[in-house]
Amino acid sequence: MEPTLEINDRVLVLKDALTPINIESGDIVIFYNPEIPYSQDFLEEYYQALQVWNLNTSDSILNTAIIKRVVGVGGDVVNIEKDGTVFVNGKQFIVLNIEESSYFQNQTYTVPENEFFVLGDNRINSQDSRYIGTVPERNIIGKASYVIFPFDNYKKLND
């Protein structure tokens, strides 16, 4: 997600385990990798949602979490052109301060209902929906709202 997020940044996440969250195109979300199966355990997810710092061991389900930007929601048509320009339903999708690249093929994706198409801001080096497919709504952990650490990187996300 560079340059929006740096490697050691920590983010505050609004989790949908406690309250419904409206996720829209442009939001930065954290989700479970759709390629790695995990068991949905309501009590475990609720417990983790209450934590400020995740203190669990390495077998935590959060170890398979990924952070990316939502580009398309259910029903959207996402077009990525060879020069890296992204269009959603015919309108250009613009993220400020990221570099588009020319390492793409012309591709069109239709986002299934109740799923999300996500891209990393570092498009040249990102394992995102182009490779792992769309993300089912049930895999969404929450929406990143602020960079909270290191303190000198503090900023609001999803503006």
Secondary-structure topology with pairs:
Blueprint: E1 10-15, E2 28-32, H1 42-50, E3 65-73, E4 77-80, E5 86-88, E6 91-93, E7 107-110, E8 115-119, H2 129-132, E9 135-136, E10 140-149, E11 155-156
Antiparallel strand pairs: 1-10, 2-3, 2-10, 3-8, 4-5, 4-7, 5-6, 8-9, 10-11
Description:
The protein is mainly beta. The chain has a domain at 10-74 and 111-156: Ribbon (Umud Fragment, subunit A), CATH 2.10.109. 8% of the residues lie in helices and 33% in strands. The chain has two helices and eleven strands; from the N terminus they run ββαββββββαβββ. The chain has helices spanning 42-50, 129-132, and strands at residues 10-15, 28-32, 65-73, 77-80, 86-88, 91-93, 107-110, 115-119, 135-136, 140-149, 155-156. Strands 1, 2, 3, 8, 9, 10 and 11 form a seven-stranded antiparallel beta sheet that branches. A hairpin with a 5-residue loop joins strand 4 (77-80) and strand 5 (86-88). It is globular, with a radius of gyration of 16 Å. The two termini are 15 Å apart. Mean pLDDT is 77; it is low at 53-62.
